[in-house]
């Protein structure tokens, strides 16, 4: 891993953390409402996997997808404006936090019904094979999604027709408030893939280098026509399921253990989130972000000054995004009709009676 | 111009679209080697290969979702749900994804997806295989629903559905597959959602769709002998609905009878009656009448089954009553 790639990944992780903390703040200010699912703690997953993606690959994500969109290259301004429900948002304010789409960046959407990402991935991959293209589909899902019928239906078809899909399980061990041992008879998600003859691997999802390495190898093989693969990435979300969830079902020792056992400290200390408490954060070890910064520092790939500059840079991007979203205009009802009728523009519709 | 069976017309429509556009492909249970349970995809796998005519496992939600994902990348999938009863297993794909993705994406993605579903009350298939689900689907903004009643319309509307960038549900009636009708491949098709007057009359308007059009036409024949002339409108599309054609007819007849095979409660007829009375209240000489299926799961017993949905005699009685009350 060269210095440029490393620093690009670190920058994206810092941006992701800063973006989500800003979103939380705007939520508490009432500028964002509805469901808001945040990503802190899981950054190594999105960044590690998506830095291994080519522009020709397709991405499908869940309702916790701001960071996937951000890392894929959708400008922070357009994502934040969408979270605010504003007209210049990436979906014109029609999608919201859980439904980010970007056709030009091949971002096929965030889906808010658990288990929907599988069949969409299946269809995109079918189209790729249909056209004999060397592209792949990256399908994100959580540990809670593996008990949905679509998981099994889609893994079966993907394997049957050797479709180019990388299934990426973001295993944060909780389906909202139900811990994995209480929702799954087999808690090692990767083991389920063998029922469909799909190669699968479990990787430390807090280690961005390990994630990136595994994703890169898997994607290379998938693009060359070897069929689907599955990666189970063990990770942890620091916050509750959504902003409406304080996460009180989890012992604080568990949260601390995760933060301590893997790499975190500096970046979190700098974050402004009231949750977990500053005391908790200070007493915790390094998280995925710090794991990477430590790696960079230890190998003399990154000096303190560069890191500080990087943090300032992402903070500026996020502040600019918030200001942009705040100042943006609201969409009108005509914009909603235009979005709805987008595909009918070449047809004459019957007038409705009213 | 030739005579053709309904299923053959659908088969020809698929063949024509697949030959014209290589992004068109078919998927569903037993559509390939087996040729489709109603023969609609017969011969197509041999002609176009397995990537264009894909036999799927029994996984309705996911293979319908596959169609949606492929449509997002610009293919034109034609998903066959073996019977519409199984479409209930694909409602998430249909309602939460196909109908909403173009909108939620702010218009970035189109959804050129066609879903074919055989349904309706056939011959003693039991309650789980004798449903009509149009009213459920009509309540989903973003779906188009067509209900062809003739081989010609089956041919036209399936081709139009495949070419549409909206998701289109094609509801095919199981008792129509082996009915015969004239088919002219070269004739100019009306718009996919346009209603058609099948028979002109002056005393009352009968609005029907799918198989009920046949019954309405039979009833109109009998009524003519009693000097009651009935306008018969074939809606052809349930979303959107061509209100203008209905309203124009009411300007002439001032009486309206709606016939649907689906359960009467909260059915398509309820929407049609409500909208037409809002729009045409002062044209009407009598309340709009609805004739629908009983609000009952379809009985298996032959006599009870046939009595659970409108029959020609029921249309005759309702029409006479409407025109000559008391």
Describe the structure.
The complex is a heterodimer of chains A (354) and B (326). Chain A has helices at residues 3-28, 43-50, 66-72, 76-83, 117-130, 149-160, 180-183, 189-192, 208-223, 252-261, 266-270, 278-283, 288-298, 304-327, 333-340, and strands at 58-61, 107-110, 137-142, 165-171, 174-175, 178-179, 200-204, 229-234. With 354 residues, chain A is of the alpha/beta class. Chain A has one domain (3-334): Rossmann fold. The longest helix of chain A is centred in the N-terminal third of the chain and has 26 residues, at 3-28. Chain A starts with a helix and ends in a 14-residue tail after the last helix. The model of chain A is unreliable at 261-274 and 348-354 (pLDDT under 50). Chain B is of the alpha/beta class and 326 residues long. Chain B has 2 domains: 2-183, 3-Layer(aba) Sandwich (Rossmann fold); 196-323, Rossmann fold. In chain B, strands 3-2-4-5-7-6-12 form a 7-stranded mixed sheet, with helices on both faces. In chain B, helix 1 (6-20) runs parallel beside helix 7 (151-163) and helix 9 crosses helix 10 (268-280). The radius of gyration of chain B is 20 Å and the shape is globular. At the A-B interface, helix 5, helix 6 and helix 15 of A face helix 3, helix 4, helix 5, helix 9 and helix 10 of B.
Q: From N to C, what is the helix and strand string of chain B? A: EHEHEHEHHEHEHEEEEHEEHEHEHH
Most extensive contact: A-B, 53 and 53 residues
Give me the CATH fold name of chain A.
Rossmann fold
Strand order of the largest sheet of chain B: 3-2-4-5-7-6-12
Query: What about the largest sheet of chain A?
Result: 6 strands, parallel
Mind telling me which CATH architecture of the largest domain in chain B this is?
A: 3-Layer(aba) Sandwich
CATH C-level class of chain A: Alpha Beta
Instruction: Choose one word for the global shape of chain A.
Output: globular
Distance N terminus to C terminus of chain B? 46 Å
Radius of gyration of chain A: 20 Å
